Amino acid sequence: MVLAGTQPGIIRTDLLSHLNYDSDILRKITDEARARLENMTVVSFYETEPTPPLSGLIVDRTSAIMNIDHEDVIPLWENHRDMCRFSGETESCKQVCRALRRITYQPQNVKRKPVRTSTHSSEMKLSDIEKLCMAHFNMVNLTDYKRRLPKPIEGTCQWIRAHPLFVSWFEEAKSTLLWLTGYPGCGKTMLSYSMERQLEETSQNILIYFCDNKISMQKDAKAILIGLIAQLVHRHRAMVRYIGRVFEVQGMSMLSSFSALWSVFERIIKDLKSSTLYVIIDALDECEGSSCYDLLNSIHELISASSSSAGSGRHVKFLLTSRPTLGQEKVAIPLHGHQLAIDEGQPGHGEDLRVFIQVKVNEITSRRGCSEETKDFLLQALLSRAEQTFLWVHMVLASLERSSLASINDFQDIIAKLPRDLEATYLNFLSALPSHHQDSAWQLLRLLLASSRTLLLDEVNIAFTIQPFHESSGDVLRDCQPAIHQTVLGVLGPLIFFWSKTVTNPLVIYMTLIRECLL
Hints:
Layout: H1 13-18, H2 24-37, E1 43-47, H3 61-64, E2 72-76, H4 91-105, H5 121-136, H6 142-148, H7 164-171, E3 176-181, H8 188-199, E4 206-210, H9 221-235, H10 240-250, H11 258-271, E5 276-282, H12 289-308, E6 315-322, E7 339-341, H13 347-368, H14 372-385, H15 390-402, H16 408-416, H17 418-431, H18 438-450, E8 455-456, H19 457-465, H20 473-479, H21 484-492, E9 497-500, E10 507-510, H22 512-518
Parallel strand pairs: 1-2, 3-6, 3-7, 4-5, 5-6
Antiparallel strand pairs: 8-10, 9-10
């Protein structure tokens, strides 16, 4: 076979000009392809890793996608060479398989809107506005942020799918909320990431946002809405018109207006053709206070309005994660029946922690060539002291990884010295206590640390309240806190844990870790 243009005298130099950036010919070909694909299900994958020895992408996201209605756009953590040939059942391979399953089960009688292909000058002006909008709505690269997150161990984070609260949230034919709470280091973010992957098995309409108070662009409700809207428009390109309409009036100021952004978000989700949209917002407690309350109250209003207008056919299911204290503070959302504490005695969470410890210990001891005796020692040491938190385990593993010595005696020494690291961790929590809570915090800490056993909340309430001027038990009871559970949480937060023991007195406080650190 002889390729056209390889014979002397017939080189097609005109073809080279057609390959220029943003050429008219390429735009025409693309528009024609979009018109042909308007009634087909399209899934576009794009590379996120440079292909060695190059330092950049060969085909970036903009060039890889079609920008058509109903297109599902999925990043693969692969380079240009490897993104279409997998070594086995890798995560990228599983993403492609999930997409194929969605296409297989998707109804074929969905009518699609015609794609606008005209290049008339009056429409080119709107296109320019849309491009400007999208440039501003892509301020945070959540794809890169997600790639840096720790990934769940294979087989973990599955327990929640059978939990009654999750089943009810997933199956209810209405807009609703599920709020997962847990203290720092208990695995909330890994659970959020896993929930996104699990929901992708049955739906492509999943939005996820990770709050992070260490990143200025990810720590208020306006940033959350910008991130959610950007994801919606990437998947449903025609929805950019709702941004353009507001942007034409308000300009850049819309990015600093919560009400303007929420209005755009509501208009887009009302125009979606799918019946259910899933929205996952992780670490909401790291969202700035006043804007966080604006977001929560807006979610509450949306859910309430949806419940009162049954039959609309469109539902938004919110899954939030945060520390327990956020749900106690000035939030209009009624949390009864919607809040799940993942680290308060959930059997599945404890099993996930055990699996995590086992896998990580196997990895460390295998790399170091440790004996079975050393491996058994580490397993027992970590399992017996983990106290339902991944935070402590992460600290231990980091210390073990840093050590250049790996005998059983060396590991024993490292673990024996760990309280000093834990002390630093909890002292950071103590230093961050609000000044108006410090006296109450020290009073509670002295009370809990001096106790020879775990205390019931009623006992804590009385001991915290009683003063020399009280003359009778009635005086003490009259001055007790009406909601001691919320009081202790609000004052001490992650320094304490609650545990269910009995039906009649369901909550007791234990402080095993911090007791070891502060005494």
